[in-house]
Amino acid sequence: xxxxxxxxxxxxxxxxxxxxxxxxxxxxxxxxxxxxxxxxxxxxxxxxxxxxxxxxxxxxxxxxxxxxxxxxxxxxxxxxxxxxxxxxxxxxxxxxxxxxxxxxxxxxxxxxxxxxxxxxxxxxxxxxxxxxxxxxxxxxxxxxxxxxxxxxxxxxxxxxxxxxxxxxxxxxx
Length: 173
Description:
InterPro entries: Polyketide_cyclase/dehydratase, START-like_dom_sf. By secondary structure, this protein is of the alpha+beta class. It is built from six helices and seven strands; from the N terminus they run H-H-E-H-H-E-E-E-E-E-E-H-H.
């Protein structure tokens, strides 16, 4: 079983993008799968505005630099760096104030990142990040604790950025 996880590359990027990310799911067979949630004291609209303003990510998200980005819409590509690693990504699902999913690649590795916003009483929002990451020998290079730590840092940074945004304003003007 461990050999299977070590060598697992998952579906092709096209299948991963269309049949997985495009249908609101990650690759649950991937060697690395993680899910983290955080309740943010802000509406889904405020969280969405900050989360989808890719140009602002470097200002609030630890270790992230966006190199190239267009509109946040299905099929649109963006290039970025996470902790110095160059990534190429493409949006699969963009449901404003509800769900944002993209696929991404770096070297020979493929990922699906899924962000779900759930409105809660009192104008709060639960933000859940799910990710699957696959590629040969990945479990030897990168573990689930590191993936979870990146997600939790992203969620905490996002919450802090949303809190700094004045109520009633939009991060995108």
